[in-house]
Amino acid sequence: MKQSATYLTTSIPYVNSSPHVGFALELVQADAYARHYRLLGRHVRFQCGTDDNSLKNVRAAEAAGEGVADFVSANADRFEQLGKALNISNDAFVRTSRDPRHLACVHSLWNACASRGDLYRKAYEGFYCVGCEQFYEPSELDNGKCPEHGVELEVIREENWFFRLSRYGDQILSLIEAGELQVTPAHRRNEIIALLRRGLADISVSRSAERARGWGIPVPGSDEVIYVWFDALANYLTGLGHGANSDTYRQFWESAGDRVHFVGKGISKFHAIYWPAILLSAGLPLPSRIVVHGYLTVDGRKIGKSAGNGIAPDRPIEAYGTPDALRYYLLRHIRSADDGDFSEEKLHAAWSGELAGQLGNLVSRVLALVSSAFGGVTPMVPDSPLVGHAEGLLAKTRDAFDRYELHVGLSEIFSYLGEANRVFTQNAPWINAKALPGTLDATEREAIVSRLGSTLAEQVYGLAVVARCLLPFIPAAAIELHAKLGIEVPAHYQAPVTVSGARTKPGEVLFPRRLTS
User: Fold this and answer.
1) Is residue 16 within 8 Å of 59, Cβ to Cβ?
2) Prediction pTM value
3) 17/148 same-domain check
């Protein structure tokens, strides 16, 4: 059977500074979906990257007293390394200043829009926020300041190239209302619809080379520079080889069953309005879905490189010796579609109380008894209420992905673990295990072995289901748990869960307790 092609992307962050933990939220959400879709049997391509050509990168390099190319390259390296440190399973990483395909891709889009008559010259004066890389109307300002960054805006006077965004507002609105272009969650969809119903103004898509300090992609046949959003959004096609007769492009954009962008709420307008309009103008297929997450905050304030409250994500990764601590916290304790507050104290509580206390402790206790009583071999799995609960867990987890509620999926998994721990304590299998070396007649021994075997086997079965459900969320720990249970990591969700007769390998503690984070 032919696999359904699915293309997933994260947004590409500015590289005006080192990455902070806020962007890790988007990475781990998108990665969870990429892993989930692979387990569903889809053919997935997952792309990340960096937005190298922004004016804020140029300003940051100047402030640091460094050359722009070297400054951008060093920070882009840090973002690429963050993906590796978080165990992100992306297939491609596009740097817009270094990928040799990107200039050709941007120019292809530009020329297609120009041939449609959607680019024209216009003198313009407006309020510009370098942090947002966008112009604002006076009505959009917050006491005269940027509503996103709270800073005074620059007044820009130039003659630029403009894109006829206004031409496509009604068409994009119809596509969203018909569900052909999905915006998730519903309240973000409603925000986009409200913007579209108010009507769209055409947008500037170039800037002077002087203001850009010569950094960026030139307008074809001109010394001006293409506006960073027109440039940056094209990265989603660059990584597929658009314009180069690429089979990858045909498979994952022209013919893909799903084209999904994961973005933060602050850039939803660019992805759900600007990008579809550019693609419509160029005569290209649109994304099928824009998935919008909230902001990570500290003490209620958005984490930002320019806000000075960024927390380096490598700190918790190094502290716990695994990316799964941070992955788990971001996916379980931050509601997928909403803002959520981050603290290292809460992260430590999640590690010690949930990962170590609920899951790790249960694994250690169960496998120790399987080892001592049954030589490490899992007995026959009984038909029990706990097994029945475990059997329904995968469907609940998959439903959480369908509803963009990853935190609910993990909550369901740990709700099951709470029940498993209670059942284990109630059955007290260690009492039966202690009785086995004693003097027992055959009937007594058989009864004890049966009770003990059933108690342990239902726990091993449940842990095997938990391990499978955790593969998209905390893959390193999930793979290790499969190894401890003596079973193979499945390629697909639908593979049967078989533990009876498997030889377990207790080994080291799954989540070692830490005194501090």
Assistant:
1) yes
2) 0.92
3) yes
Tens of pLDDT along 313-371? 998 999 999 999 999 999 999 999 999 999 999 999 999 999 999 999 999 999 999 99
Q: Is 418 domain-assigned?
A: yes
Helix (H) or strand (E) holding 57: helix 55-64
Rg (CA), the chain: 27
DSSP secondary structure letters along 361-415: HHHHHHHHHHHHHHTTB--PPP--HHHHHHHTHHHHHHHHHHTT-HHHHHHHHHH
Task: Specify whether 80 is located in the same domain as 228.
Answer: yes
CA distances from 274 to 225, 269, 271 (A): 18, 7, 6
Integer Cα distance of 429 and 434 in angstroms = 9
Neighbours of 447 (CB within 10 A): 12
Domain extent, residue 69, equals 5-316
CA 97 to mean position of chain CA atoms: 23
**Residue 504 within a domain:** no
Distance CA(481)–CA(294), nearest Å, equals 31
Positions of the chain with pLDDT lower than 50, given as ranges: 1, 517
Tokens of 367: 């496998």
